[in-house]
UniProtKB/TrEMBL annotation:
The keyword Iron does not apply. This is Glycolate oxidase, subunit GlcD. PANTHER family: GLYCOLATE OXIDASE SUBUNIT GLCD. Pfam families: FAD-oxidase_C, FAD_binding_4. Its cofactor is FAD. The keyword Metal-binding does not apply. The lineage of its organism: Bacteria, Bacillati, Bacillota, Negativicutes, Selenomonadales.
Amino acid sequence: MSYYKKLTATDLIKISGFVPRNRILWKNEINEEYSHDELTTEHYYPEMVVKINSTQEVSNILKYANEHKIAVTVRGAGTGLVGAAVALKGGIVLDMTMMNHFLELDEENLTLTVEPGVLLMDLASYVEEKGFFYPPDPGEKSATIGGNISTNAGGMRAVKYGVTRDYVRALEVGLADGSIVEFGGKVVKNSSGYDLKDLIIGSEGTLGIVTKIVLKLLPLPKKNISLLIPYQNLEKAIRTVPLIIKAKAIPTAIEFMEREVICDAEKYLGRKFPDNQADAYLLLKFDGNSVEEIENYYDNVAKICLQQGAIDILIADTDERSEGIWKARGAFLEAIKSSTTCMDEVDIVVPRSEVNTFVEYVHELRAKLNIRMKSFGHAGDGNLHVYILKDDLDDEQWHELLTLAMDKMYAKAKELNGKVSGEHGIGLVKKVYLEQSTPKTAIDLMKKIKAVFDPNNILNPGKIC
């Protein structure tokens, strides 16, 4: 017998008292898209989807679910890659995409208050039009800010500006029993006890459901320039990165990519990349308040790159040139996905000094296993995205090789003092690797924290730990 209550028509009637029936999907009304996220191949259907429109609705549903032991999974745009938004135990999915309002721009305190369903691309446009800057920049611009907070997604600008956690001032959160609490505030400093806000960030909806967010903003840099730097091989490209960091002219972003991924993006987008002749590339972005300021940053970096074997330095100093390069970079995931029948990924993070070691290991591993694997990532912060492709393998071969490849890559990351995830999270599919790579004492502490926040284990059960 399942621990969780199966929903009945009586539950539908009760929940329809909290939320209008036209915002509830019940059983056969539930679209297939709610059974998976962007990458998870296994499908788990919820018994009910509720399209949330207010904090009070979250509170009422959580209180009811907690009393009746009904599983509740929170979901944003569904762009995740680890199954965190999938209803493993059925129950209720709370679709937060209708809570997508901008609530307050506080120019005196440099904060923006939003609801969790605001899309990342809309958030960026909103603040930039007003002369402000929200630095976190995950590749999936159609993700919600609530989803970003759930995984602490960092994106490409983390090397200079940090990750999502660094820009969250306060959170309003619905707890498992339906109570609504606020963690943090508009203050810049806060040493007032345990930082419960930071526990919620990255918890993937297992500790509480975020209903309001106060974000820190920065003044918008007036100019940015990108450098596309081709190399004969990836080893030379990656080994340049520590020297760039040491040069103390830290770029906004330092990305690495290989020609085969660029060719995938060209085919997917139907447009040419500025250069696709070299085997490997670094892509750097610099920002500042004037062209002269930025040139002072990148002149020395360009010299370092040429000294380390760069073939050329291609400068994108107009919005049009820069946009074309970064649009191609942003399309890598979808381009790789469109080139195969099925794929899975690892989101490993290693010390920056070990990026080349890990990438070289991936190349050796794919040759040894004779399976296609493609990689790109954030060379400036050590976060690597490696995709294992099924192509025409049968299901048995695929699962065998996929498991072997992942086991070996996560073991290598542990050997290099790395971690399981840099920004995609743990969710459903990476749990075993978190347990293997994390001391038992730490896992036990996570479980105890979960039990304090959610004694009946109704919030996104079966995820993380």
